[in-house]
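Justification of resources, computational component.

The compute hours requested in this renewal are based largely on the per-chain cost of generating structure records like the one below. Each record pairs the submitted sequence with a full structure-token output. That output is archived, and it is also reused by downstream analysis tasks.
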Amino acid sequence: MSESNQPSSVVPGGNAIQPRMVLWSITIVAVGLSLFQLYSAGIQPLGLFYQRSIHLALIMMLAFLMFPAFGPTRKRGVLGWGLDVVFLAGAVLTGGYLVFNLDEIFSRAGFWSDTDILVACIATVTVLEASRRAVGFGMTVIGFLAIVYAFAGPRGELPWLGEWMPGILEHRGYTFDRVAGQLYLGQEGIFGLPLGVAATYIFIFVLFGAFLECTGAGKFFIDMAYAATGRQRGGPAKAAVLASAGMGSISGSAIANVVTTGAFTIPLMKRLGYKAKQAGGIEAAASTGGQIMPPLMGAGAFLIAEYTNTPYLDIVKVSILPAIMYFATVYLFVHIIALKQGMQGLPKDELPQMRQVMKDGWHFLLPLAVLVWLLAMSMSPMRVGYYAVVTMVAVAVIRYALWFFFIAPRQGQPVTASATKSMLGAGFAKLIEGLELGARNAVAVSMACAVAGIIVGVVGLTGLGLKFSSMMMAFSGGNILLALLMVLLASLILGMGLPVTASYIVLIVLVGPALTQEFGIPLLVAHLVVFWYSQDSNVTPPIALAGFAGAAIAGSKPMETSFQAWKFAKGLYLIPLFMVFNPEIIMGGPVPVVIWNAVIAILALGAFAAALEGYLFTRMSWLPRIAITAAIIAVFYPNLLSEIAGVAVMIVAIGANWLASKRESEVTPVSG
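The structure output for this chain reads:
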């Protein structure tokens, strides 16, 4: 398999101008971090603070090495090197101080020494700077504003600022020592739950995804999708949906998913007849869906499991149906556009054969099978990730060894000492590549979780979460639809500066209490709703990040592509609403009720796609489209008679459209 046939992968920090010494340093630190994580996941688990502090120190060292202070296109210079040395020392101090003084810190039980406070200040500044480089300026600003808010109050460091606060946001204010101690030495702060999840479950699964990527799993998923759907109407677009579901389930980023699969799917969609903006929008919507697709869910499943105290396997189970509903909606949009524009599939000779695809890549399914099997046995997700990585490496080694010793000689490549040496060298290089890529990929999410910890710490210290709940009740007037609309708008605003994972953490801390306590939404449903809405910054203009990535590949205007992505991703907004009003699809219930809710949800989403496009079997007039819209509202309302009436209207409208298409085909027969 030639290198050119591999999907293009995005290496974080790979576009920066770096001297060779720095590149070697990045490799050493990254490989060391990955080996440390594997050791603590599968061989010798460490204590909570030891694990998190060592993880954060190595992650921040990587961030300062990978991302120069003044941007990737400029050389560091004397000032840049000076800043990097200072912050690298800060990273080592942040983790090292806790590792070597943990027992003494615990024995002080909240009575921190001057040294504790000094190190806490250095650690907080270092975390904010590492976040600025790895995640973006928005995340750092929000973290900084949270700290300033903690100081604002009559008994805080900034009493004058507290006077300007609206009454509902007022609090007593906190001193420098109290805030620093809370953020660095408290259990709600930098080393709190978000970083704990990143340092354990998330990293090991990101590493697993990196090994899949290095060994060619991306091409396998794409080829399998093309083999399955390529000959159908709009085949490449349907392949994009399926490939993005496959890649997204093991990828941690919608944007990386767009770039990886979109490099293949978008040009073929354009060739088939999709407009450039449609091709980019389809890929962006499908790749965003990858973040809600089990088992990894872009790290969300692990966070939800920790916050709700629900077993990880249960989160995966309840997320399968909503994910299928989302992808079914995007798939139907794609199919309707293909019908509407009279598209055909690709010729058979241009498509991979499923038998050959499975023959070449069946081994990629083995680690996934091991992963699912071990999860089903209720093993710890961290240990499962460890065995999945080990299985992936073992399978790749065995497959390459079999090829080298048994197949290559038949192709005229004899086994010699020099060939064996080259083979071992190439294998070792591939191992190092996987270990390094996994660590690089984890930097952004870990830094986002560290700063999210700062925000969570301030929220806990000041009681902001309860104040936010009161504001939600006041503004929504107790109306659950208005409250959910506020959550949606808040997630969109947060998404301008925060990655999805951090946006979810901040939102759930702020609005979670209101959704569960004031509106009576079940805890798990509330978390899933907030997590789904946190994805909207990928596809909602004006800051549709995945849409912009799709536009870059498609060669279309970013805003036009984003609006297309927004249209195709409507399930992202509707499915959480259905979860709230019909919680049985998440929380379970009588089997007939669950099946009924699943069926009417899929029917409603499909009818919505048809009404929005104005086409299903043939063109729809405005009257059935309005009727379908009203029927969808009825279906979402949690009343059996209302649901039955809505389903009946949709069936009548869809049936009438089918009969109209039959009459048209009889009047104008299609020539063979």
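Residues 1-5 have pLDDT under 50 and may be disordered. The chain is about 75% helix and 0% strand.
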